[in-house]
Design a protein that fits this description.
The protein is of the alpha/beta class and 218 residues long. Helices cover 40% and strands 21% of the residues. It has a single domain, classed as 3-Layer(aba) Sandwich (Rossmann fold), CATH 3.40.50.150. A 7-stranded mixed beta sheet has the order 3-2-1-4-5-7-6, sandwiched between helices. The structure holds S-adenosylmethionine. S-adenosylmethionine binds next to helix 1 and strand 2.
């Protein structure tokens, strides 16, 4: 089963988790860190069931545009049922090859750990929004906090069970996830003036947001 089939098969279950109150709070935190201006166009890569839509919409207002991009048809069906409007669209496509040609800002929550070349994807998103454009990434990792240490084995198990079977490899799922998350967030810090670099939820999430620098400075 590949990632598209996995997220289509488990779309309803994923949607429940994606909308837990604690997760919704973090989504608002991401949208505030992204800080698009009212009226901006924001692309949400790997948008899933559209969990970020309302938080992004709060920032861009009725004149702004929200574009969700995901490669799994099952999650997109739920997203389209939930969030509709003249300036909201959900597109089926590959986040690593953006199917849109311009945007003011882009975010990706819980996505980059699934990408084979996360740094390359961040570079493509930086090109899409251009100099002065905004990018934000949110991901989970094991926590470095002492108080959270007992929860890390549970996190490891959850990552293993939550990985599409076709994506399993010799590298343990949690190490692969963290390697990719580090690569993506590091790339965002290199290509932008990072304005937010945060850990939260006892250190389990990493949030990075920044303003893209001119390509000549990358
Ligand atoms: C863990 S879910 C996160 C969904 C959503 N961002 C959220 O915060 O709830 C990862 C999503 O990324 C999508 N995805 C993974 N790789 C993708 C790719 N290369 N292009 C587009 N979507 C992708 C999956 O289909 C899934 O919906």
């Amino acid at each position: 089963m590949n990632g598209q089939q996995f997220y289509t098969a488990f779309a309803r279950l994923y949607d429940r988790v994606a909308r837990l109150p604690g997760v919704s709070r973090v989504r608002r935190r991401v949208a505030r860190a992204l800080a698009p201006a009212p009226g901006d166009t924001v692309v949400d890569f790997g948008c899933g069931t559209g969990g970020n839509h309302d938080a992004v919409r709060e920032q861009v207002g009725p004149e702004g545009t929200y574009l969700g991009v995901d490669y799994a048809s099952g999650v997109l069906r739920i997203a389209r049922d939930r969030a509709a409007g003249p300036r909201t669209a959900f597109l089926r496509g590959d986040a690593t090859r953006p199917p849109v040609c311009r945007a003011d800002a882009a975010c990706a929550t819980f996505l980059v750990g699934m990408l084979a070349d996360p740094a390359g994807a961040v570079r493509a998103w930086a090109r899409l929004v251009g100099p002065g454009g905004r990018l934000a990434l949110l991901n989970l990792e094991r926590s470095p906090a002492r108080v959270a240490a007992p929860l890390n084995p549970l996190f490891r198990l959850a990552v293993r069970l939550g990985s599409p079977p076709g994506a399993r490899s010799d590298e343990p799922a949690v190490e692969r996830l963290e390697r990719r998350v580090r690569a993506a967030h590091g790339q965002l810090r290199r290509l932008s003036t990072a304005t937010v670099a945060d850990r939260g939820a006892l250190g389990f999430y990493r949030l990075t947001a920044g303003t893209v620098r001119p390509e000549s400075e990358w």
